[in-house]
Amino acid sequence: MPIPRPRVGLMVTCLNDALFPDTGRAVVSLLRRLGVDVEFPAAQTCCGQPMVNTGYLDDAVPLVRNHLDAFAGYDAILAPSGSCAGSVRHQHGLVARRSEDPGLVRGVESAPPVYELSEYLVDVLGVVDVGAYFPHRVTYHPTCHSLRMLGVGDRPTRLLRAVRGLTLLDLPGSGECCGFGGTFAVKNSETSIAMGNDKARHVRSTGAEVLVAGDNSCLMHVGGLLSRQRSGMRVMHLAEVLAQTEPVVERRTERAADPTSVGSAVPDATTEAVR
After folding, report:
1. Over its length of 275 residues, how does the chain's per-residue pLDDT go in tens digits?
2. CATH no., domain 7-124
3. Same fold, 7-124 and 137-242
4. Least enclosed by CB within 10 Å: which of 23, 76, 215, 230?
């Protein structure tokens, strides 16, 4: 009997769902290309990180319960965000223990493991070269939660170096925070902007065409500053770069031009992902 493929639940995160849906589509396209059975549980909501980070742990209890229900039965959970992956992995336990609900504590302890995208690709799938093609000069910003809370290390840069056509440029001061920090950017806006400007200056100094990171929250912050500075530099999530493939030049034959031929109406993974 064939061995069943692991079921992976995509925790797309609030920010991606609301503002950056292309990142979620890229994750699905990439994983399906690698043979992973990935699904999107529609019942998922916020992971509760904003409440926990601002000290409202009790308000995060319903969100932790919903997370457990939405992702029950999966072999693994994947998030294209070091911030949200770190929240589930480290903060859900804090919320559960504070609630003094033994059932919630057991639920968190037995929940499927949560992986940030680069962790899943490198550690679980054992893949570094994902078959991507992206002929551009790129620099990479390691976001705070992925760097410090999850310890993803060089996994993202190993993945980027294996992309055909990509030139990876070192980012000065790469380990410095970009200044976003969620509600920090609102409560301490002047400090946040100053930190963001420092990061933007370092990014521009590389001469890269594209700034890549594993969290769209950081890219939104730095990207906004780069846009105001009219830098001409794009920002892209790691998943969107890894999902890129080399264009296929097809010969136009009678069979290929025939609309009834096999494969003429086969949808791609991205189309299937959003149905």
Report:
1. 556 678 999 999 999 999 999 999 999 999 999 999 999 999 999 999 999 999 999 999 999 999 999 999 999 999 999 999 999 999 999 999 999 999 999 999 999 999 999 999 999 999 999 999 999 999 999 999 999 999 999 999 999 999 999 999 999 999 999 988 888 888 888 998 999 999 999 999 999 999 999 999 999 999 999 999 999 999 999 999 999 998 876 545 444 444 444 333 333 433 344 33
2. 3.40.50
3. yes
4. 230
- Report yes or no: 77 and 115 within 8 Å, Cβ to Cβ: yes
213, 143 Cβ separation under 8 angstroms = yes
57 Rama sector, left if φ>0, alpha if ψ -120 to 50, beta otherwise:
alpha
CATH T-level assignment (fold) for domain 137-242: Rossmann fold (3.40.50)
d(CA 76, CA 72): 10
Domain positions in the chain: 7-124, 137-242
In whole angstroms, give the CA distance from residue 122 to residue 130: 10
Tokens linked to 226: 């780069």
